[in-house]
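Example record for the data management plan.
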Amino acid sequence: MPKRLPENIGRAVQIIRKEYGHYVQAKMIRNKYRLFEATSIYDPEAKKPKKITRYLGWLTEEGMLIPARHNDMKTRVFNEIAKSNEQKIKELEESLKNAEKRAFENGVRKRKTAKHEIDILRALSMNARITTPELTKITGLSKTAMNYHLGNLEKRYDIKYLLEIDIEKFGYINYIAFLKFKDKKPDYEEMKSQLEKIPHVQAAMITKGTYDAVIFLVVKATSEARFAFYKIMNMVFPEYEVDWSITPAYPTFGFIPLRDKFFEVLKEKVWTRTKERPRPMPDEITEAEYNILRAMNSNACADFTSIDKEINGNIGRSNYAYHQLTKRGIIKRATISLHKTQAKYDVIFIMHYTVQKDFSHTSDKILLNIIHEEKQQFDTYSFTCDITSPAGILLISSITREEGIELQEQRLLGETKGIKIDTLIITNMLVGTLDNRLFDKEITRQYEILISEYKYESKNVLPKTE
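Corresponding structural encoding:
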């Protein structure tokens, strides 16, 4: 049985056979593969074909032909062809290697990009006025790369910069009104026009479910609150029969952004110097502080020098006022809102307590649920609060999948006992906006309670994922 030729030698022999059109054979002679061409010519004397064997040269281990001294043009042509073929093979192999490398690098780059974007979104959520050098230190990106990612995120999610303001510092409290129209109900434009002119209304939405509309209000935390509610109920929808259910809301996660219209109410908290009141009360602010709150409420990243010019203040006044308000806790933080999240639904889950004892035994599950990072780019819930009528918890979530509502309900019901759930799908925002961002869960009240009271380990609260 003939010995099998090495791969490179065998490939060269096949190429030579094809190019020469004759039988070509390689033989191992003196430790080299030597190439012979076998052909025949007609011998007129013998009157029959005569076999002729011609030595072409020897082959290197790479399959390159080293021609014999008597080599003719055919051998030179073959070498050119062989070189060309070898080059094409090498180029193809290199191309395949590069393609594999690019695929790998693109996969790594995509994962790294996703991580960089999450880091950026979380940093901006916690402090929208963070500097570029601080962001580059957090992410490890260059300044150029950081600016690219930031611009891309701002465009993709339509990021707005706003303030998170602690209204309780001014003596105000959040309330939620649930509306059910008995007979007919107003259309979208009518509801919008009546609600948006009321400065106490910070957000309002049309809902599908137990209630037809939900309104988030900010009013004084005094006995005067009920007069504000009477006034509002008389002002809006006077021609319709409406059942109103109003409850205080005690925020536990996230917040409802304040409208600019609210500053008409907040104006009453601006201190005016008098002989009897030489200094502001704890719940009062100066006019400069009021102006900066209003200016930054719609653009928390506004340049302080520009704000000084806008409010006709001295250079540096707005910077000073901002830091004083932050120090007093009136400004919790400059933050962001993602206005484009590709959510299919915004949903309100109202969890009613049915058996308080059963709920208490599993309340840690709802704490875990609230700070669970199912959506990497923004929080699972944009806002949660305790309510008293009905007694329970209200949660607002953006759902990105068709089956997401049912899955979220099942999760809440499956993990938490002693509750029932009313689900309201938000079909239209009438007034204001919701806030979607990516909050640092390790500084939330939920995280603190899980660690300190329920003795959870950090890895079981916020498991680290690649």
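Summary line stored alongside the record: The chain has three domains: 7-71, 106-157, 168-257+339-461.
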